[in-house]
Amino acid sequence: MGFQILTCILILSAIFIGGFFWAQRIRFWSLVDGLWATSIGLIWIFLGAENLRAPVPVELWVLMGLGIFWSLRLTWHLGRRLRAHFPSEDPRYVELKKNWTASKFFVFFLAQAFIAGILSLGIASPLMLNAQVLKAQGFQVQGNPFAWIFLVGSALSLAGVFVSDRQLEKFKAKSKLSNLRGEVCQQGLWAYSRHPNYFFECLTWLFWGGAGLSLIWNQPGIFKFFTIVPGVLLTFLILKFTGIPYAESSSLKSRGEKYKDYQRRVSIFIPWFPKKKV
Question: Tens digit of pLDDT for each residue in 117-138?
């Protein structure tokens, strides 16, 4: 297990340090978003290749498969967006470029590598623990019906992320075509939550943690609880730092009173029935 963790550290270091110099050369710091999604998938592919050769319950195959699918979809989604906007930076990085030196961006890229490591290793920890148990005791981690409940929940949540992203893309395309600026997307899932994509993203990771923990619940030690850390950490970051706070502030600046009305009527995170317009 130690060799695998060390290899993951080296892979992430190479991706994000190389990505930093690439971003610096083309002066496009938004590149880090794409690296984040891609690097997690590469770690899961590596760990899957290392550990899925041993006998494992089918639930772990499904867990890793869903994770790699998540990475491929998000890499494709972000890649399209970055390519469409290049060389224009995401507004977040426009503000950072005003105040940050290259050294601060380097630390930021390393911090992203650290977070990617926690997320990828946390979800893959049941897979690594299964290989360790098999080697030490001669039997594999047993399947668990509760794991299937969490896996089905995660698949439905992934669908929710995809649907909400597509609804927002169609709204933006329609608004651009009709030359409508300052409008607020209130179609589909966006009528029930101001950030349905973030909600379903967090739910996906929490379900993955639940699936992993249910499979290794009977194993001794506290290492098994590491599998729920990614979901909790990602939810905390989205709610308090990188996701919703920035999106709310940005939308208020660009959409003004229309967004304030949207805030009054629609739940910020968990989908719920909207209030009627006054």
Answer: 999 999 999 988 877 776 666 6
Q: Which residue has the tokens 């005791």?
A: 137
Report the C-alpha gap between 154 and 147 in whole angstroms: 10
84-98, 111-125, 127-141 — which one is most confidently predicted on average? 111-125
Nearest to 267 by CA among 184, 189, 204, 159: 189
CB contact set of 143 (below 8 Å; sequence gap of 6+):
57, 58, 59, 215
Residue 118 is predicted with a pLDDT of 96
Residue 226 and residue 125: Cα distance in Å, rounded?
7
Confidence of residue 23 (pLDDT cuts 50, 70, 90): very high
Q: Which residues of 6-45 are buried (b: 16+ CB within 10 A; e: fewer)?
A: eebeebbeebbeebbeebeeeebbbbbbbbbbbbbbbbbe
Take residue 86 and report the two structure tokens written for it. 């290049």
pLDDT tops 70 at residue 139: no
Residues 190 and 196: beta-carbon distance below 8 Å: yes
Say if residue 87 is preceded by a cis peptide, omega within 30 of 0: yes
Query: In whole angstroms, what is the distance from residue 25 CA to residue 145 CA?
Result: 50
